[in-house]
Amino acid sequence: MDVHVIYLSQVLDVPVQRLYMLSQNDNPNAKHRKKRHYRNYHRVILQREQAGKIRVLNVPNACLKLVQRRILNRFLYRLQVSAYASAYVCGKSLRDNAAPHIGQEMIVKLDVSQFFDHIDDDMVFLVMRQLDLSDAATSLLTHLCVCQGRLPQGAPTSPYLANLVMKPFDEKVGAWCAARGIRYTRYCDDMTFSGDRDAIGDSGLIPYVRKMLRRFGFTLNAQKTAVISSSQQQRVTGVVVNEKARVSRSERRALRQEVYFCRKFGVQESLQRRGDSTAPETYLRRLLGRLGFAVQIDPTDTEMQALLKEVRAMLHTD
Q1: pLDDT of 195-229, one tens digit each?
Q2: What count of Cα atoms within 13 Å lies in the side-chain half-sphere of residue 63?
Q3: How far is CA 94 from CA 65, 109, 179, 249, in A?
Q4: What is the CA radius of gyration of the chain?
Q5: pLDDT digit string, tens, across residues 21-33
Q6: CB within 8 A of 294, min separation 6: which ones?
Q7: Residue 164 belongs to what H/E stretch?
């Protein structure tokens, strides 16, 4: 038996036979194929906020999920993602993705179409090869992390693997942008570019990114392309960046108003007045999360800090 496969078994603390069983994702029962039920995975369909939009997850079973977490922690984290990626990276946040674009004349936002579905087992295999294992061990790791030859949304390894797959693209596009005075960041499938109006306008940015995505096996989602000047509200992954990073004016107004009504009427009555059936504790925790996000984006925002402290007190009292 391949010594590197035995090594994987030892590091992951799972017998070799069990690893191979978990790596087999073909449906053993033909009558279920129309429902796309895969061995070791089950489908979860999430309804998005936009009408008619759904998100389909292929979620691994408990045993496979445990193995994937071990692969992530014991192997994949050895590999560094690009400096342009901020999603799914320890120590980075939405603020890190937005900060380079603060105060820029022009922002261009582009989106990768069906991002995870375009990442196939060959792309994952090329990432796994960087671990310097045998072909047999590399193939086994690959098949433990893909479902039906694609990177499954719902697996703990998928986000970090997606960043590693995109690293050559990030570095190629990042160097091209830097040579033209353009700033570039990527948050999962959301790409953001910013700079002077002339630098953006004269660069041929969008055709170049479209070409590079095709070269790396992806496509540009033209429907989500946005070009935003400094005279408009510029948002990068939900963060307003016209002058400084902060949540939008409308969100600040809503937070201010909701805390005011909780203070004036009490949490229960304020919810009743709004026709909201959410339990008070659940509502306060959600409100706390929104305020915490506002403070994370702009730690100098004393108003949001005060509201955060007030809601914490309400939650403790309630």
Answers
A1: 999 999 999 999 999 999 999 999 999 999 999 99
A2: 11
A3: 26, 15, 25, 17
A4: 23
A5: 999 876 555 455 5
A6: 246, 247, 251, 252, 255, 301, 304, 308
A7: helix 158-178
